[in-house]
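Students often ask why we bother encoding 3D structure as a string. The short answer is that it lets us treat folding as translation between two languages. Here is a chain of 715 residues written in the first language.
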Amino acid sequence: MPDRLLSRRPGCERLGKRPIWVIPTRGKGVDAPGMPSPRVPSDGESHVTGTTTRESIADDPAPMIRRRRVPCRLTLVGAALAVLSVTCTAAAAASAHARERQSAAASRSESLSNAYQDALYAATVEQSLERAYQLGHQASVLAWHRQAAAAVDSALTRVAAVGPADTGKRIESVRTLHAGHLRRFAAATAVGATAADAQVASELTETLQDQLSASAKAAYLRAVEMRAHAQQSGPPGWLLLAAACAAALGGIATTGLLAARRRRDLHQERDHNHHRRLHDSLTGLPNRTLLNDRLGQAVITARRERVSTALLLLDLDRFKDINSALGHDYGDLLLAQIGPRLRGPLRDSDTVARLGGDEFAVVLPRVHDVDAAMVVADRLQQVLREPFLVHGMPLSVEASIGVAVFPDHGEDVRSLTQHADVAMYVAKSSGAGVAPYQRELDGHTPGRATLLGDLRRALDDGELSVHYQGKHSVRTGKLVGVEALVRWEHPQRGLLLPQSFLPLAERTGLIHPLTSFVLGTAISHCRRWLNAGTELPVAVNVSARTLLDPAFATEVERLLDYWALPPRLLVLEITEGALMTEPEHAGVLLERLATLGVALSIDDFGTGYSSLSRLRSLPVQELKIDQTFVTHMLSRPNDALIVRSVINLGHDVGLRVVAEGVENDATLQALDALGCDEAQGFGLSVPQPESALGIGAQPLAAAGGRPRLDAGLLC
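And here it is in the second language, the structure alphabet:
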């Protein structure tokens, strides 16, 4: 059977609409190319541009004659083409009717061939499932086999429907053969069946497939033969030549029109793409690229004219609450109204842009000083306080605005953007609403402030990596899990630890892509370990800002589905302080994560002052004692008391307790005496890259007994 019988041929073609072209006519008084320039009107001519009086026509009739000849010639050519087309159409009508009959018959044969192919495919699947069931005797495979048998019957019904009248008898014989095969297969799978029963069932299904394949091939060959006969019953050659000439002439004219239309469309598409590249698709406002360009031009002008330029960064407060409560459609409609509202108190020369999400920016090309920029920021905050009407519902939002002014706060676009972002963070965290940049309130030195741009680049250039630190059973010493820790190999500064850049990411919103990177990497590595035969849970830290992101749970579910990782092997660690920041939002997110089957852990427990009742209401499985208590528990009685209390508290509510910061054997023994479940720290294992773990080649720790502490691991 030809290979093309195994592929599904399309049942129909997509029909497009024929374009209707409007041929523009030459307007009055517009001279054709090559025509002489109009003369200066004389006394006998009209003073209307491009029109002449009868006297001027009588004086010089040549232009009018040439203008009349062009439409006359076009009319004659069009009439000749029309006559030729009618002649060709009439002559080819008879042969076209014959071709239609042949094509219809060929289509019916193709449909019959497709129906036979469907039945053959279902029978092949049925045979594959029979072999699978004989190997494993799984109930699910047997259920799929019944579905495949039903698919064979359905396909045979379709064959009888699309085939000729004599097809019904042939199908009845095929059905009888298929029914006998099913009885033989049932006997072969019954208790006490012999190999002979299975052999008979296999021979019957092979016979069934041979018959279906032969029928499909025969129907296909009939269709090919009919198609060839339809092509041979075409019109005479001279008619085809005449039709080709007519089509060529029409094609030349149509090509000219299409080329003109295409040039016009390309110009429009180029303008549209240029606008889309520089503007936000939702609000129509300039995007970050256009904002940076205009801010750069404003800085150049301000430097030349020795004036000031201000950049205002706005972040909407509690905007995510609207998305969570009403849906993203309400949020999008609200964002679309922000731009026009901000333009109210601004000048035409000022720029309003959307940076993404709920962040906007305003460029003031000429301001007197910082105080003048602050006045404008106050006005913007006032206009945003007025409710927005979305679908008849009044919605109220406020904004935190950071102000940076050239040259006081920066000499270029990058420094102004960074300092305005710092000022916006100060305005949001302090509750002031509006704040100018102040160097003393910037928590980073100028050298560390550049880390923001470097961190954005590092996420794209692959400079970040994930290391893993082991979690060991206190009683047996076995490795029971690992914690994922991010590291940054900076091209100039070398290896950077999380405490040097995580606060910056948390403050600027880069924590979201950073968390996604660590989460995706950890899940993929855990899947790799599972494939190697090692079932090792991996823990990933979740920041307070991530807890407020309603899309985080969806992302976790998507990554688990993509890597086919059992959710119980993923542990999400949330600090106690993050839970206390937004307890209601955090509780909703934790409940959704718990329904996915993900394990939840409260990190740094003992520093957030959470209540016992709150702890019992959270769907968590693990408590991690903060290392500040564990490290000095042998020398500070109060720390030891806290550690003992947390262990007892965790066990009372059915939680697993993990001690962080274990750096010596004495601390490990003390934790064992207190009944602590697991321990983690540099005294047990240092963070190391995934390639150094050796999973799949050898165990990470001894199979039993407390791990031997090496003094070299304490550094």
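Translate back mentally: The first helix runs from residue 54 to 59. Keep this in mind for the problem set.
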